[in-house]
Design brief:
alpha+beta
Length: 179
């Protein structure tokens, strides 16, 4: 299932949800979003993905536009919940909405990231359940907002020791830690 094209999530009629098969063909509902290749790439590379959420949320888009953002770690470890829900977030270059080439960029990450920022576009997050994907997307957006608010103020981020404690305690798998 995927949301149909040109639909506001706040007014989504469940009967209009697009149901597509494994080959991307519409089974029922409205025509799907043009972002199906984006969603499919995450399902293909993240074996535990039961849901994918993609938004155009303000703070995440703003973050994706900053020149200093590291493509391998778009946000520093600012809070334990960001690390626990999102892990690290990759940033991929701009692709026009619906461009099938975005799937190759996501595939190139080899399933290492459950949270990805699309430059000048927005976040895409995968998780085992829809609820977990929504919560992680919300956490990503709030952390992007926090980053933007603190930019230039020299805030204290989590230390490597604090990150390692979270990784060990909660069994997190982070691309940079090799876990």
């Amino acid at each position: 299932m995927v949301t149909p094209t040109n639909v506001s999530l706040g007014f989504l009629d469940p009967a209009r949800i697009s149901r597509i098969d494994a080959e991307g063909r519409v089974v029922s509902g409205d025509p799907p979003t043009k972002e199906v290749p984006l969603h499919a790439a995450l399902y293909d590379t993240r074996t535990n993905a039961g849901a994918v959420v993609h938004l155009h949320s303000t703070h995440s888009v703003a973050l994706s536009m900053l020149p200093e953002i590291d493509a391998r770690a778009a946000l520093p470890s600012m809070t334990p919940y960001y690390l626990m829900k999102c892990g690290q977030t990759a940033l991929i270059p701009y692709y026009r909405p619906g461009d099938p080439a975005v799937a190759s960029a996501i595939t190139g990450l080899a399933g290492k990231y459950s949270s990805i920022l699309l430059a000048n576009h927005g976040p895409v997050v995968s998780a085992e359940t829809l609820e977990a994907a929504v919560f992680a997307t919300e956490e990503l957006e709030e952390t992007a907002k926090l980053y933007l608010l603190l930019r230039g103020l020299n805030p204290r981020f989590l230390s490597p020791e604090q990150e390692n404690d979270l990784v060990k305690t909660f069994g997190l798998a982070l691309p940079e830690s090799g876990s």
